[in-house]
Amino acid sequence: MAPTKKTSGTAASTEAVKQITYLAASLKAPRITEAAARLADHARDAGWTHEDYLAAVLEREVSARNASGARLRIRAAGFSGVKTLEDFHFDAQPAIRQQVGALASGGFLTEARNVVLLGPPGTGKTHLATALGVAAANHGHRVLFATATDWVTRLTEAHRAGRLPNELARLRRYGLIIIDEVGYLPFEQDAANLFFQLVSSRYEHASLILTSNLPFSGWGGVFGDQAVAAAMIDRIVHHADVLTLKGASYRLRGRGIESLPSIRTTTDQTES
Ligand SMILES: Nc1ncnc2c1ncn2[C@@H]1O[C@H](COP(=O)(O)OP(=O)(O)OP(=O)(O)O)[C@@H](O)[C@H]1O
Ligand SMILES: [Mg+2]
After folding, report:
1. Ligand 1 binding pocket mutation candidate from 100, 115, 127, 245 (most atoms within 8 A of CB)
2. Is ligand 1 within 6 A of the CB of residue 246?
3. Which ligand number lies closest to the CA of residue 91?
4. Residue 56 has pLDDT above 60, yes or no
């Protein structure tokens, strides 16, 4: 038999410790054993009530479970790199500070609202989408991150295998799906339809975060069909916070490069 840990109590308390060890193992909560032993002397010395002691022991178990759950959810999300709101310098984007602060509490997820981050390259769209995803995972939500192109590949595979409805139903069990880089690569008509189905299946059920370097008016070109793009934007924006990031690329800071070639619009071209 394993040697019993020495406690400051009597034989009766040694028996109780053994029983706690057994009961905690049955509950699959081994940290309770450790917390119960560690806090017992302190509780006696500080004159805690039984209720205070029980609450403190259970609190250790719950916070350890939440932390390891969040770690697993962050790992499973598939972020391209883990970024947090603490790492984000709002001085570079002061106009969105308040909006992001409100989103960080995760309330948008319980209301199945969406977030759209628009802005030129390097302004922090992926950083903020990831950071909001990390915050969501910390709040207990399951999250999946991928680029728009990767989502299309995934949906195309499911469609070819005849399991698109199952895949969409499975994805609805994720409180948050992040679609990064809408607009960098145009889609085929079939891909645009699959993307529409993803947006539509989540509409008023679960949240999306989308990032794009294009304003909504440019999405028709990406999806190759103005009608599909319009119907999709309608569903995304109906319950959404749209954040517009501005300014020069953060990547170019301090490199003596003032700006990148801008994305030329039709108006630019007729003017020149
Ligand atoms: N305000 C900021 N504070 C701290 N880091 C930032 C900020 N903005 C951007 N960055 C950092 O700069 C780099 C580029 O940002 P990010 O990848 O989020 O840009 P993006 O808007 O997604 O660009 P792209 O359109 O090219 O994908 C990242 O390493 C990011 O962490
Ligand atoms: Mg990006």
Report:
1. 127
2. no
3. 1
4. yes
**Which atom from ligand 1 is nearest to the alpha carbon of 184?**
25
DSSP state of 179: E
Assess whether the C-beta atom of 123 lies below 6 angstroms from ligand 1.
yes
Q: How confident is the model at residue 258 (pLDDT cuts 50, 70, 90)?
A: low
In this structure, which ligand is nearest to the CA of 123? 1
Six token digits for residue 45: 């010395």
- Give the list of residues 6+ apart from residue 243 with CB closer than 8 angstroms, or none: 96, 99, 100, 115, 116, 117, 118, 128
Domain ranges of the chain: 11-75, 77-247
Residue with tokens 């793009």: 229
Q: Is the CB of 212 under 6 A from ligand 1?
A: no
**Structure-token pair, residue 146:** 């991928």
Mean pLDDT of 78-83: 96
* Ligand nearest to the backbone CA of 92: 1
Mean pLDDT of the chain: 89
DSSP secondary-structure letter at 261?
Answer: P
| Ligand 1 pocket check for 213: Cβ under 6 Å | yes
Percent of the chain with pLDDT over 90: 72
User: Are the CB atoms for 63 and 31 separated by under 8 Å?
Assistant: no
- Read off the pTM: 0.81
Residues contacting 191, CB < 8 A, separation 6+? 152, 155, 156
Domain at 77-247, CATH from 1.20.120.530, 3.40.50.300, 3.40.50.920, 3.40.50.10800? 3.40.50.300
The helix or strand, by DSSP H or E, that contains position 209, with its residue range, turns out to be strand 207-212
